Amino acid sequence: MSEEIGGEVVPDSTRELNIDGELDIMIEDLDLWYGTKQALYGVSLPIARNSVTALIGPSGCGKSTLLRTINRMNDLIPICKYEGTITKGDVVITDKGADLVELRKSIGMVFQRPNPFPKSIYDNVGYGVRLHHQPTRDELDAIVEKSLKRAAIWNEVADRLHDLGTSLSGGQQQRLCIARTIAIEPDVILMDEPCSALDPIATAAIEELILELKKDFTVVIVTHSMSQAARVSDYTGFMYLGRMVEFNKTEKIFSEPDQELTQRYITGRFG
Amino acid sequence: MKKDIDLLKKRNRKRRDLMERAGSTGLALSGFIGLMFLSVLVWQIAVPTFIEGETGQIEPASEFIPVSEYVLKWDHPTVDDDGALIGDPVVLELTWDDGGTERTHSIAVTVTSERNLREDIVINASGVSTEAVEVGKKTKFYIQSSLEVPVDIHQASGPVPAADETGSPTVSSFVISADVSVVVDDGRFVSHPLTMVAWLMLVFVVALLSFPMPAVLSAMEALLNRQAAVRYTLYGLAAGTLALAGFTLEAWLGAGCWTMSAVGINRTLQGMERLKSQGRDVTQFDRLKHSITNREGVLMWSRMLLVFSTLFIPLLIDVPFLTERYQDIFQPYASGIRSAFFGTIWVMGIAMVVSMPVSIGAAIYLEEYAAPTKTTKLIQALVTNLAGVPSIVFGMFGLAIFVKQGGIGLGLGPSILAAGLTMGVMAMPIIVLASQEALRSVPTSLRESAYGVGCTQWQVTRDHVLPSAMPGIMTGSILAMSRIMGEAAPLVVVGAAALVLFDPEPLAGLLGGNKGFTVIPIQIYFWTSEPEHAWHSMAAAASITLILLLAAMNSVAIVLRQHFRKRLNS
Ligand SMILES: Nc1ncnc2c1ncn2[C@@H]1O[C@H](COP(=O)(O)OP(=O)(O)OP(=O)(O)O)[C@@H](O)[C@H]1O
Ligand SMILES: [Mg+2]
User: Fold this and answer.
1) What is the pLDDT of residues B169-204, one digit of tens each?
2) Which residue of A has its CA nearest to B291?
3) Residue A263 Cα to ligand 2 middle (Å)
């Protein structure tokens, strides 16, 4: 089925959702409204464990919105309502009674704009750990160091751990946020355009990091850069006007997409 | 296209520059007006004698009224240690027309230490009965004339007296003192040496945390192995200050200074140790800065404490006007505002204790927790409107609820407690609104990142939103406090007294005892309504005190705001 919107034939959200590996999170038939404005239309998406799933699509198509439903960040927006189910194993994330603290502990998020706490670098990373586990000072020191090393920022901050996190550069802040997220050992990391504020060198560092993280975590990343999606991801979902137009293995999407719309988007002949 | 944008940019810059200039000019102007205002106040204190020398006229006696009377009142001669009048000797001259020739009679005025309430001077055909009069406190001269011609009176020499408020010569107030020194100059250092040293120590710590002092740092290296000893010495000094200086405000501030210094020095030593273990030079401040745990925070609290204890005049300089003297109804210049000063402190303290927790709690609830239902909207509207309600209305409210007995009244009587509660209620809506504003300005991204690491709502509020909003909340609260500190109207209604010759008893309203109290604005109000100028000068002195107290509180607010801004910008 499809619908014509503004002279463009937009297919309904795809049902072809094949993945090779083990399923980690399943999103099914998600409709979402901001007030009366519908932002997602029957979106379904499987997320494979220990892989990188990329979400691409033009601005305003609902990538962030979809990502934020996975850890229920949209609950913070009072006018946001949704229907559909998201499951992680036997946990129904969209359940009213879901334990949001446990959920967000196991599904970490890195935001589009780096947003470290206005606390010291040390506390930025240590805060969540201290909250969930009660580590001794030495254990915490070790966790902080390990997380900062994994986020490829340790060398830059080792001797200024008690400086404010907000005093770092944008790229450093973003890596600090990644360190903060991995410090609490989630299963899944959601990244909303983590490189949009970064220079090519920092971007390369983060991409390398994502490939590294994949070994231990499931990663979902929203990106505007086709090349980035192609470089780091295993699966790619292309979204348009709130629909999941196409989902498939990244090689497939970038070599021979099923949908003409996808083809046009990834080759830059769009709009 | 580009040209258009350039044009727009130019225009915007112009507008911005204009705004900036207008803003700075406005600030300068208001500063100037403030200074003018202050100098007028100082002038009022410094030059309390006004206008011109005393002149008057005694009406001629008539057939029907055989004697006409003229009363001169001598309020307050200022004397030196030996009891001699300060200034030139005062001479009054009486002049009248004795059948074509002008006759003059001089009366010398001397000072007595006795309280001399009355001096009679009789003028008749044979002359004036008295060559000299003695004045003490509040002496009145009753000058009786049985002459059938008017007698002119004027002061021939001596300090110039004040004119009567009404301009009527019948009763005049002689104020023979231009001596400000009585009011201000005998302030002296009465601080306990321990609190003085504590204050100096805090100055040192603020310096230590603020800029590089390599020599001091290398000297401190010797203390690295004795951190515990240093810490316990400083804590001991804090306890010692409390024990030796008594549990006074001064002692508490002193103990605070010691404790803060202990924290600052301790953190610095820890930072140095960290550097040393990394094999780095401990005297290099740029590096050290980063390894001092929460240097910013410690610095902020130290600075605030420093500002507060410095501007809190009685800590360092004891001014009898503030802390020793009560009002002296006979001698304006020997009066002080001890009772009003402590009254103000108590009222503010009670107002703060009752209003801040409640208001901040309400703000947090409204901003963070309450669903936007009709009820919360109604409450919000009520709070917003309450902030604009005239203060006298809060006075009426306080009268009904706190002062009066029976009905809904708590029956605390016109006491400090009732006044503090009333003022607290008045401050509440202001604090709620300011706190809400501060909470609202915490960026959503901060909340999101906190939720993102798995915080509960309470944890987000406690660990992230509140700390970020706290400077704003504190600034708002302090400004609310300084607003109510200057209010007289509600307390007139609540029943502050004009004359209180004892220290206020804060719990008298509950426990019984002497309920009477006054505060500085009330004292100013009553003193300005006295007819004599001397009291006006005292009112001016009290006003300056009030302004200094406000300045102290606002400085704390400024330090907070500055800190907040720096943190956001970095
Ligand atoms: N808080 C909100 N309130 C109302 N509408 C919103 C809100 N957030 C997003 N939307 C709307 O939902 C739609 C999807 O937004 P979303 O942020 O998910 O887009 P996106 O694909 O992430 O875009 P971008 O690539 O620019 O980040 C947009 O039309 C947007 O206007
Ligand atoms: Mg987005």
Assistant:
1) 323 333 333 222 233 334 444 567 788 888 889 989
2) A162
3) 21
- Asked if B211 and B118 sit in the same domain, the reply is no
Q: Are residues B335 and B308 in the same domain?
A: no
B544: domain CATH number?
1.10.3720.10
C-alpha–C-alpha distance, residues B406 and B118, integer Å? 49
Instruction: Encode pLDDT of B83-114 as tens digits.
Output: 566 566 778 888 888 888 888 888 887 766 66
Task: Collect all residues with Cβ–Cβ distance below 8 Å to B210 and sequence separation of at least 6.
Answer: B299
Name chain A contacts of B278, Cβ cutoff 8 Å: 159
The domain boundary, picked from B276, B291, B316, lies at B316
**B455–A101 C-beta distance less than 8 A:** yes
Identify the sign of the CA torsion B529, B533, B535, B537.
positive
Residue B258 has pLDDT above 90, yes or no: yes
Together in a domain, B351 and B497? yes
Question: What whole-number distance in Å separates Cα of residue B262 and Cα of residue B251?
Answer: 16
- Report CB contact under 8 Å: B447, A162: no
Q: Whose C-alpha lies nearest to ligand 1, atom 2?
A: A34
Chain A contact for B464 (CB, 8 A cutoff): yes
pTM: 0.69
Ligand nearest to the CA of A32: 1
- Sorted by sequence, the CB contacts under 8 Å of residue B416 that are 6+ apart come out as B343, B346, B347, B350, B504, B505, B506, B507, B508, B509, B515, B517
Asked if residue B376 is part of any domain, the answer here is yes
Q: What is the pLDDT of residue B51?
A: 26
Task: Provide the H-helix boundaries in A27-120.
Answer: 63-70, 100-106
Separation of alpha carbons A222 and B424, rounded Å = 52
Which residues are bridge partners to B409 per DSSP?
A: B406
Of the candidates B69, B75, B76, B71, the one whose C-alpha atom is nearest the C-alpha of residue B147 is B69
Ligand 1: residue of A30, A32, A37 to mutate (most ligand atoms within 8 A of CB) is: A37
Structural domains counted in chain B? 3
Q: Residue B239: helix, strand or coil by DSSP?
A: helix
At A191 the pLDDT is 94
CB of B454 less than 8 A from some CB of A: yes
Question: Quick one: B275 and B339 in the same domain?
Answer: no
* Sequence-distant contacts of B215-220: CB under 8 A, at least 24 apart: B217/B272, B217/B282, B217/B283, B217/B285, B217/B288, B218/B282, B218/B283, B220/B265, B220/B268, B220/B269, B220/B272
Q: Do B494 and B419 form a contact (C-beta atoms < 8 A)?
A: yes
**Cα separation, A109 vs B115, whole angstroms:** 85
The parent domain of residue B406 ranges over: 326-569
- Provide the pLDDT for residue A231: 93
Distance from CA of B455 to the nearest CA of A (A): 6
Boundary residue ending a domain (B168, B195, B216): B168
Per-residue pLDDT tens digits for A154-205: 998 988 887 888 888 888 899 999 999 999 989 999 999 988 877 888 888 8
